[in-house]
Design a protein that fits this description.
The protein contains ten helices and 25 strands. It has 428 residues and is of the alpha/beta class. The protein has two domains: 137 residues, FAD/NAD(P)-binding domain (3-Layer(bba) Sandwich), CATH 3.50.50.60; 219 residues, FAD/NAD(P)-binding domain (3-Layer(bba) Sandwich). It has a five-stranded parallel sheet with strand order 5-2-1-9-21, with helices on one face. A five-stranded parallel sheet has the order 11-18-12-13-14. Strands 6-7-8 form a three-stranded antiparallel sheet, with no helix packed on it. The two termini are 34 Å apart. The protein binds flavin-adenine dinucleotide (FAD). Flavin-adenine dinucleotide binds next to helix 1, strand 2, helix 6 and helix 8.
């Protein structure tokens, strides 16, 4: 029986494991966490709109009934790609095929103090840490006996993570203010060294995102970067200092630390360059997929520029790598990855979604964009969850009703109505 090791149980790793297991390949799926996480909803966890348990699912549950997938929870300390050997504290394991799907990590670009003091938003643990911090700060601000000192959240980076988080927090602060619960000034300030929000989108979306965030009270500054982060300050590249203990780092990602142990010369962003068929050139039986990989976009005469680090790329590439391995096992030829580009989307807040549909980026905003966002996220979620309708109901309610002040603070946090089977609740 053919064997495969998959490094990483995120969207790409899970999709690959499912494909292989359906075709008689014995899979060992290794992740440091015993759950898979759904990153697109992390800001909902950070802003207390969802509990962390709702955006993670135990890998054992996701593969229940799949005898061909052995889920191993362990920190991978080294990968020897040439021999397809993966080392964990329990020792080395080798297989016929190795699929590296280890995701990304926050890139602090060497900014002093950022790794120590800023809040990245890449994992469920990051989201919980930020949520606890915000909750503590808001409890002080909501205390009538508090000192009423102004509170500023600085968000570094105007990409989708920065914009979505800024929108969610501004709504939260606005709702608390409206309720009369907030006894001090709370401000969201977003800085970006470029000159547009949601840079990969078109100009129309740049303007829409800026207008929506401004409407919600977010202060947006372009042409400025965060140059240092302290425990109680953020220093900006224009020389100003902001008093804050809350710098949210949405400034970029790079390949994960484990990629550097593989013996593969890393490409742009510390990621693994792969061929069009998702194999790592020069090695036998080694694939890299998802965020960890620079996957060339070779469709329709595209120049081979890497595809973006997106859930849909990860999901489709994971599945495709699985299909190619099965084809290899059968002695058939492998095929170049064909990415079905459904578009790019962001939710800036209630009633303020924006979508650019398909390869030609047809612009939609408001409720129609929300429907597109919903459809895409349901597809992404379906890779790990069977009860996608529970997500659809929750999201519909979130988008259309003002739940911004339903804070953990008031023990009223909303939930996706997953089945709540005990086995389905991750051990976070
Ligand atoms: C805040 C946020 C919002 C996003 N929103 C969207 C969106 O709206 N739409 C969209 O399409 N995409 C979105 N993305 C991007 C999308 O989530 C990623 O592209 C996708 O999750 C990548 O999947 P992956 O499987 O490659 O990596 P991941 O999902 O990151 O999985 C990698 C796995 O590898 C494991 N791992 C890494 N190193 C080790 C090690 N040494 N030992 C053991 N395990 C290890 C990790 O624990 C992790 O589980 C968002 C990302 C973020 C961070």
């Amino acid at each position: 029986m053919t064997t495969a090791i998959i490094v990483g149980g995120g969207m790409a790793g899970v999709a690959c494991a499912s494909e292989l297991a359906d075709h008689d390949v014995n899979v060992t799926l290794i992740d440091r966490n015993n759950y898979t996480q759904f990153q697109p909803l992390l800001y909902q966890v950070a802003s207390s709109q969802l509990p962390a348990e709702d955006v993670a699912r135990p890998l054992a549950t996701a593969f229940a009934g799949q005898d061909r997938v052995a889920v191993v929870t362990a920190e991978i300390t080294g990968i020897d790609a040439a021999t397809r050997t993966v080392t964990t504290p329990d020792g080395p394991v080798t297989a016929d095929y190795l699929v590296i799907a280890a995701g990304s990590q926050a890139n602090f670009f060497g900014v002093p103090g950022a790794a120590e003091h800023a809040f990245p938003l890449y994992t469920v643990q990051d989201a919980r840490r930020l949520r606890r911090h915000l909750r503590d700060r808001l409890r002080v601000l909501c205390d009538p006996a508090g000192d009423g000192a102004p509170y500023t959240v600085v968000i570094c980076g105007g990409g989708p993570t920065g914009v979505e988080t800024a929108g969610a927090l501004a709504e939260l602060f606005g709702a608390l203010k409206e309720q009369g619960t907030l006894h001090g000034e709370a401000t969201v300030r977003l800085v970006d060294h470029g000159h547009a929000l949601l840079k990969p989108f078109t100009d129309k979306t740049h303007e829409y995102a800026l207008a929506k965030l401004t409407e919600k009270g977010v202060q947006v500054t372009f042409g400025v970067a965060v140059s240092a982060v302290g425990a109680d300050t953020a220093t900006l590249s224009d020389g100003t200092t902001v008093a804050t203990d809350t710098v949210i780092w949405a400034g970029g990602i790079s390949g994960p630390a484990i990629a550097a142990t593989t013996g593969i010369a890393l490409g742009h962003g510390g990621r693994i360059d792969v061929a069009a068929d998702l194999t790592v050139p020069g090695l036998t039986g080694v694939y890299a997929v998802g965020d960890v990989a620079n996957i060339p976009d070779t469709e329709n005469g595209a120049d081979g520029h890497p595809l973006p680090q997106l859930g849909s790329v990860a999901l489709q590439a994971g599945k495709w790598a699985g299909k190619n391995i099965v084809a290899e096992v059968r002695g058939d030829g492998v095929t170049p990855f064909h990415y079905h580009d459904k578009g790019i989307m962001a939710m800036i807040g209630r009633n303020a979604a924006v979508s650019e549909i398909g390869k030609h980026r047809h612009h939609l905003e408001g409720p129609l964009a929300f429907v597109a966002w919903l459809g895409l996220h349901a597809v992404l979620l379906s890779g790990i969850h069977s009860q996608v309708d529970a997500f659809l109901n929750w999201a519909d309610d979130y988008f259309h009703h003002d739940r911004a002040a339903d804070l953990e603070l008031a023990d009223k946090v909303g939930r996706i109505a997953w089945a709540d089977d005990e086995a389905d609740v991750p051990n976070l």
